[in-house]
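Hello,

Following up on my earlier ticket. Below are the two sequence lines again, exactly as submitted.
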Amino acid sequence: MTENLVFTLVRPQMGENIGAAARAMLNFGLDRMRVVDPRDGWPNPKAVAMASGAAGAVLDRAGLFADVPAAIGDCDFVFATTARSRELTKPVYTPETAVAEARARIAAGQRVGVLFGPERTGLENDDVSRANAIITVPVNPDFPSLNLAQAVLLLGYEMKRQELGALPVDPGLAGADPATRIEIEKLGDHFEEKLETAGFFFPPDKGPSMKLNLRNLWSRMPFTRADVQTLHGMLRQITRSQR
Amino acid sequence: MTENLVFTLVRPQMGENIGAAARAMLNFGLDRMRVVDPRDGWPNPKAVAMASGAAGAVLDRAGLFADVPAAIGDCDFVFATTARSRELTKPVYTPETAVAEARARIAAGQRVGVLFGPERTGLENDDVSRANAIITVPVNPDFPSLNLAQAVLLLGYEMKRQELGALPVDPGLAGADPATRIEIEKLGDHFEEKLETAGFFFPPDKGPSMKLNLRNLWSRMPFTRADVQTLHGMLRQITRSQR
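Thanks for your patience. The regenerated structure is below:
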């Protein structure tokens, strides 16, 4: 799917930022970059040094274009990323809605482009006028300081997030079985027995509610079988050492 | 709400990265930072220089702690951000599910901490063992190169994204009225009249379907009133100049 999502850096200035953008793309598995009229020529050794390794291949394959119309000529739909409000009448998407739109178009066989402006000045109105729509990241209006690679990173993250869908929380038990209910029950029995001997359930009329609360405590803990064995062992050793 | 979300940098190394993390937080309106045992002491002039301006205030107010237990002592729930799988049994969240969990807990009056590790090595098992759960960003397994400020940025972005909810696309018509249907109808009439005169609807038996398609074309365009006036003016001027 990602070969039809093309990130285009328009008149980028610092090679380091171009390299950082390539890294940010590859972090989320995106690798189609285009570059329009980079300030310091192309290829850019500082971009390559910053990208390093696998992200360098993103730069090697990046298309170089003289202007925006040439760079987006084969795209079916183009977004311009810009933080500033413009006098241009154009739909404004969040990263979330933009990625949803892009994914739907790509699934229908279209090619979608995203324009990112030069570091200091951002995209010109002339660039934005050629896009179908605008993407504005909902940054703090009192501190909107996203740099080029960060804007690329957030779009890449949104693509991956929507691609994965609503992943459930992984209980993190790989290689560790959760304890069964009978094991929890027996752990409760063991504690109750040792605590009974130790005179913990006092005064006697409070005993039943204290036991109920303890059963409840064990039951809501996400213990593994190993955890339960550890607790049995601790309890045995403590009571043994006190004899 | 954000005063109960505390981002804790554990043993950060480069001042520049601490400053960049403060900027990334403030980009999404977060301002509660804590710092554990920073390599180059505290306050850190390079961090302040990098943060600059408003993000400098995040550093000024950041709490300095000797170790992780002290830094998270007043938190009700703590996430550890780590890319690597650990031998520790612990639930693993995506940024999306982690932020949903954090928002629910904060809404219930809890304080939630997020631990970020040192730049090169990430969090130690000893740090992770003190967290309730892990956050792993779903990066490309072949190129997982997120830096400290980028990890902070993605969590901040998720907070803002979920806070805003599913924002609709802004049609971008601020200060520009959309054309009414009667204006679109009259635009269609104007074109039809001028094209009729020009002999465009030929052969005559194809005329009705050509007119239908043109009406459909105008109707699906998101024209503003100003767009419609522009088109009327263009059409008048072209036909006038050709007399």
